[in-house]
Design goal:
Helices cover 66% and strands 0% of the residues.
Length: 183
């Protein structure tokens, strides 16, 4: 059995220092491998993309500080991708109907609005699967990760204008898809 050949990546010290070029290079070197690991468990699609994005994002912005040896990075990413994918497959998040109590209650939501939201979420997931993996990553980083367009561009590649255009195009595609599905 041959050991997996790993391309040399940015130094661990640069990642720990928050070097944006090192983070962007790390993202481009490792995201596909992490996605493939997630897809083996979850199948190709939005769920695998979400988990892969979360794993790489969390590593870069949180857990990189805990790593002491560069050779541990690939093992860590594979382990976390597998663990999180298995957790997702067990049903913690997959196609789970949101209870009205689980939605933020700002006092302005009516029962009808809550019901509409519950019906919209499964359709939205189907529409997200129609987007490219990179578009899914960008939307996740923007809306779930609350990152700026400039920061997303540094991580996944592209200018802030390109990222903004991609987000506008994706939201329009999602809107059209939801209308087509009767939402």
């Amino acid at each position: 059995m041959q050991a997996e050949e790993v391309q040399p990546g940015p130094s661990l010290a640069a990642l720990k220092a928050g070097d944006t070029e090192a983070q962007a290079r790390f993202w481009s070197l490792h995201w596909d491998r992490v996605y493939a690991t997630c897809a083996r468990v979850l199948g190709y699609g939005v769920d695998a993309s979400d988990v892969a994005t979360d794993v790489v994002h969390d590593f870069l912005f949180t857990y990189v500080q805990n790593i002491e040896h560069e050779r541990a990075i690939v093992s860590y990413l594979r382990l976390m991708a597998t663990r999180r994918s298995l957790r997702k497959r067990r049903g913690a998040d997959r196609h789970k109907e949101l209870e009205p109590e689980a939605l933020p209650d700002d006092g302005a939501r009516s029962a009808e609005q809550l019901a509409n939201t519950q019906m919209l979420l499964p359709r939205l997931n189907d529409c997200l699967e129609e987007l490219t993996p990179k578009a899914q990553q960008v939307l996740k980083l923007r809306f779930a990760g609350d990152m700026t367009n400039e920061r997303i561009g540094q991580v996944v590649g592209g200018s802030k204008q390109y990222i903004g255009k991609l987000i506008r195009q994706c939201t329009e595609k999602l809107r059209t898809c939801l209308e087509r599905k009767g939402a």
